[in-house]
Amino acid sequence: MDSIRLRSLPRLFLALLLFFVSFGYATAQGEQPAAGEVGTSKNPSEAGVTPGGVAAAAPAAAAGTTTGDPAAIAAGDALFKSNCAQCHAVHEVVVGPALAGVSKKHNMPWLISWIKNSSKMVASGDAEAVKIFNEYQKQQMPSFQLSDAEITSIIAYVDAETAKPAGTPTGLTADSGGNTVVDGTAAANGDSGSAMNILLIVLVVVLIVLVVTLVIIANIMKDVLRGRKDLDGRDREQIEERFDYSRIYKSTAVRGIVGTVFVLAVLYETIQGAMGVGLSQGYQPTQPIAFSHKLHAGENQINCAYCHTSVYKGKSANIPSPNICMNCHSQIKTESPEIKKIYRAIERKQPIQWVRIHNIPDLAYFNHSQHTQVAGLECQTCHGPIENMEVVYQYSALTMGWCINCHRETPLNTKGNGYYDNLVKLHDSKNGAVPFTVSSNGGTECSKCHY
Description:
This protein is mostly helical. The protein folds into 4 domains: 1-32 and 194-241; 54-182, Orthogonal Bundle (Cytochrome Bc1 Complex, Chain D, domain 2); 251-277; 293-449, no CATH class. It is 51% helix and 1% strand. The chain has a two-stranded antiparallel sheet with strand order 1-2. Helix 1 runs antiparallel to helix 9 and helix 3 (70-83) crosses helix 8.
């Protein structure tokens, strides 16, 4: 019977399989972050890594007075995380005292003098200064070269945090009644991700059920057809037909395709390997001390510039000296085997032999502060999600092509810099629809990096 065509069933299976695989892939792609999302956040409080110039540039409160101005509080937030969060928290004791309500305990002139030079106040015999110094095991607080307005902004931030319930984690806020509520954006993102995961699971289950159902229907149809008496020889031959899988690997065409793919794959890997000589992307050496950026920069939100002090003002980002570690670890985890390694290095007057990870060839000029301070790039732009790394590895390729692509795609930060005014006007007059990028300012010329 010509009307019977069982060969259409495999095609139906294949069509359904391709449909669900394509739909699932497209759905999963929708959950992925957009390209370039890593390290482009400009939120000063995110992950404990903030550009060095943000706090100074933000409007601050008038010296000697606190204010609820959001701009002043934001400036104080950035300054606090850069300078204070290593030893202080608002609602709990860390190395130094909890700061909640500090503006009610001391007047503003006293606080400004204390933050600028606590040692001088202790030496002068100030009663409150001496009391705090003795209460906290005579731990000397560093002096800070901050303006009166910047210190006032920090106190404004502390006052704002004091008003929040203690222990309110990131992503949660307190309502007017003092109740803790989930931040709407975080909740929406979490719910969206969960819904997508559930949808994918349901689709996979439905696909499996459909495939099993179709196989069962096909077998039932075959059994029914085998019992019919009116089938001719051609129909019975088709029902009993078995696919000969040996035809696949015996086929000359298939062998040719497999051989070609194999040769191309070997050739591709060979070329990639040759081009990768001298590149160290993914390099993750074992360090002499098990330092965790995830703990320090992520969970504790210690600003990068606290340890890497030249990151916003030097040609290269320095490796912190042991005395910076001792600012905290003279009081915290002093019995840890890893911390004792720092003690031994100090006692022996020997530097810690850290293994360098990011290393640009001497033939290329690179200035770290030009990218962090002037361009305002986040640490994650080049170093990846550093705040999530237990052991640091080289995230980016750091090749010539990688740098040039960045210079071609990144708009130049010209805001508030009169040096660029005429250049921007000249560029816009000729290329108004094209952004003024680093490349537009000569950032891809050979002599910019090689001279």
